[in-house]
Specification:
Elements (H helix, E strand, L loop, with lengths): L1 E7 L2 E2 L2 E7 L7 E2 L4 E7 L4 E2 L11 E2 L3 E10 L5 E19 L5 E14 L2 E2 L10 E11 L2 H4 L1 H6 L4 E12 L2 E3 L5 E14 L5 E2 L10 E16 L12
Length: about 240
């Protein structure tokens, strides 16, 4: 389903709202005055809430680029961009144990990366380009197999824990002193999962035993162009 949205730029007390978009947006342009138009593909992250099925708790949702656009800013050393991506996120964890594997663990996460002209936007850095929007580690352990003699003979006892979560999150990224000109703003998200050993593994799309997965959507990005003067405190980047 596609939605169309046109948002007029409004300047109030030195603040100009220069963009609003959701993931699936085609490249658009925004200048320091005028209108912003976007075509929005509003994908929904959902959970299969029917129990007792092989895919119970499975997630459906999108991934990819949240926003890829161009922002034109005026010539001023005080021009700062306040970028706020908001995103619904979903996490899936399935940890099953058997007599041969009495402990099982995995993790799933949704991370967001914002770049301006290819460079990470604070608080992200080149060494830490992603901000975690949602992450969960899940572990299941039991000594029940040691206590049940029948399991030692037939190995037909098991325990399975499945957990899925949906949540909405937003975070402020700040690009200080961007200078005048046309800048490429890109907001992306990615899914990161680990297995029982803690090693990074592809997030599942099959939602089977001992797997982890994630999903995302819908999402929006707002960009505010502000003036950050040093006499007002400016922008401080703490370690």
């Amino acid at each position: 389903m596609f939605y169309h949205s046109i948002i007029k730029r409004v300047a109030v007390a030195g603040v100009a709202v220069v963009g609003l978009a959701a993931f699936g947006v085609t490249v658009a342009r925004a200048q320091s005055s005028g209108n912003f138009a976007a075509q929005i593909n509003q994908s929904q992250c959902t959970i299969n809430t029917v129990g007792g099925l092989p895919n119970s708790g499975s997630l459906q949702g999108g991934n990819g680029t949240l926003l890829d656009t161009y922002i034109k800013t005026p010539n001023s050393q005080y021009t700062t961009l306040l970028i706020t991506p908001s995103l619904v996120t979903g996490l899936f964890n399935n940890t099953a144990i058997t007599q041969d594997m009495p402990t099982s663990a995995n993790s799933a996460a949704v991370v967001v990366k914002v770049t301006l002209d290819g460079n990470p936007v604070a608080p992200a850095t080149a060494s830490q380009p992603n901000v975690i929007y949602d992450q969960r580690f899940q572990q299941l352990s039991s000594n029940v197999f040691e206590k049940i003699a029948q399991c030692s003979i037939t190995n037909d006892c098991s325990m399975d824990l499945v957990e899925s979560t949906l949540g909405a999150h937003s975070f402020n990224f700040v690009a200080p002193n961007v200078g005048g000109g046309t800048h490429n703003l890109k907001v992306e998200w990615a899914f990161v999962c680990t297995d029982n050993s803690g090693a990074t593994t592809p997030c599942t799309q099959a939602y089977t035993v001992n797997t982890a997965g994630a999903c995302a959507g819908p999402g929006t990005v707002t960009v505010q162009q502000v003036k950050a003067f040093t006499q007002s405190g400016g922008v401080t980047l703490a370690p």
